[in-house]
Amino acid sequence: MTVDDTGSGTAGDGRGDHPADPGEDPLALRLEQLILGAERRYTPFQAARSAGVSMELASRFWRAMGFADIGQAKALTEADVLALRRLAGLVEAGLLSEAMAVQVARSTGQTTARLAEWQIDSFLEGLTEPPEPGMTRTEVTYPLIELLLPELEEFLVYVWRRQLAAATGRVVQAADDEEMVDRRLAVGFADLVGFTRLTRRMEEEELGELVEAFETTAADLVAARGGRLIKTLGDEVLYAADDAGTAAEIALRLIETMANDETMPELRVGMAFGTVTTRMGDVFGTTVNLASRLTSIAPRDAVLVDSAFAQELIRTGDAPASEAQAAEEAAAAEKEGTEPPVYRFALQPMWQRPVRGLGVVEPWLLSRRDAEQ
User: Fold this and answer.
1) N or C, which end of the chain is more exposed by having fewer CB within 10 Å?
2) Model pTM greater than 0.90?
3) d(Cα 66, Cα 69) in Å, to the nearest integer?
4) What are the tens digits of pLDDT across the range 143-166?
């Protein structure tokens, strides 16, 4: 609920005397009160004053959280005042800078906005279909949300705490302070081949089901193998992993899983290893751009990696420097009666080629060496 930051609409300006616009749906207002747990009491100016925050700072916080401009209507609650007071208190206590507090508001707003939209579009919309003829959606929605709200709230807090614990663990294991922000990671893009053509041939509902199936499968595989899903872009997913071996396993599993599903288009994956800047849950930098470019030139149902990624797999013993080296090691081990090194992956150098904005790169084709699928 972004506000008019002029502060000209005060409690006595005559515009905030009514708790709601006469044209607003009564059920919508009842649902809002149920979800927020409080009635509308404040204009933005009054809320900022009650929280002890300047109108300018309150406006920055509200805009960062992604709320629409409401001018100086009386539409805010005690919860809004408390949220302002908490953010401002963190700044006053020196725990957060003002810029960081705005980032906290923005990252939380963006994440929860997407979650709320999904829950309404894909979850509540179906559940609130009248179960019996003659019942209206109005008669179903309110009691349903009343039952779901506390359960969903508890589950959200649980998942957030779990994710926070995992993220904190990764940060404290960083080698130094710089690595907390600019870290060396393996980054991968997985892209559905021919998706644009599919959009012209498939019905919207079929296309939506395909995208959802792809995103769900990718998210499950990335999480199960120890990676982190950064974001989904319809026909493409971006993920990261702390080490190249984990990212390589995820990429090949994605290819193998999609290839076994006749309803899915072919897939291609590009990966790079190097320094990555992380901001608000996203990743940026040359390494990310390189992974994206490699995806665009990867063969169908194949994985391309950059030279740094290949060298990291060789360094950690996940892949041999060459098949000739692997053969020599196997022959020497047989002669000595010992077990040869076991490599999970194979790397095949491809032709060097120029990549727009990144110069000449040397892609490597990644494949699986062992029999495990």
Assistant:
1) C
2) no
3) 9
4) 888 888 899 899 999 998 998 888
